[in-house]
Amino acid sequence: MIRARRYPIAAVRGCLYTGRRFPKPTRDVTVCLNDRAVRWVKAVNLVRELQDCTLIEVSDVPAGPMEGA
After folding, report:
1. Which long-range contacts (CB under 8 A, 24 or more apart) does 37-45 make?
2. Is residue 39 within 8 Å of residue 30, measured between CB atoms?
3. So what's the pLDDT on residue 66?
4. Residue 50, in any domain of the structure
5. For each of the chain's 69 residues, which pLDDT tens digit applies?
6. Which domain holds residue 28?
7. pLDDT at residue 5 in the model
8. Please, what sign has the CA dihedral across residues 45, 35, 20, 24?
9. What is the pLDDT at residue 62?
10. Is residue 68 domain-resident?
11. N or C terminus: fewer CB in 10 A for the chain?
């Protein structure tokens, strides 16, 4: 398991459209938000960048309130 203290949105995933007058879908892409091509992506998912991460063993995670009920 990974615990991230920060997880900003870094990119979008979706279909890239090309063409000027009548844009057509071309391929699935993942594009960073600072890329000029992002305006031509019909996004279906946001991509987050995990920062300041800690690896945790699943067995070290305390049981939730629903477990064992």
Report:
1. 38/12, 40/16, 41/12, 41/14, 41/15, 41/16, 41/17, 42/14, 42/15, 42/17, 43/12, 43/13, 43/14, 44/13, 44/14, 44/15, 45/12, 45/13, 45/14
2. no
3. 63
4. yes
5. 999 999 999 999 999 999 989 999 999 999 999 999 999 999 999 999 999 999 999 888 887 776 555
6. 2-60
7. 96
8. negative
9. 82
10. no
11. C
Amino acid found at 63: A
Q: How many domains are contained in the chain?
A: 1
- 14 inside domain: yes
Neighbouring C-beta atoms of residue 40, cutoff 10 Å: 17
DSSP lists the bridge partners of residue 11 as 32, 47
Cα-based distances in Å from 39 to 6, 12, 69: 25, 10, 48
In single-letter form, the type of residue at position 55 comes to L
> Whole-prediction pTM value?
0.70
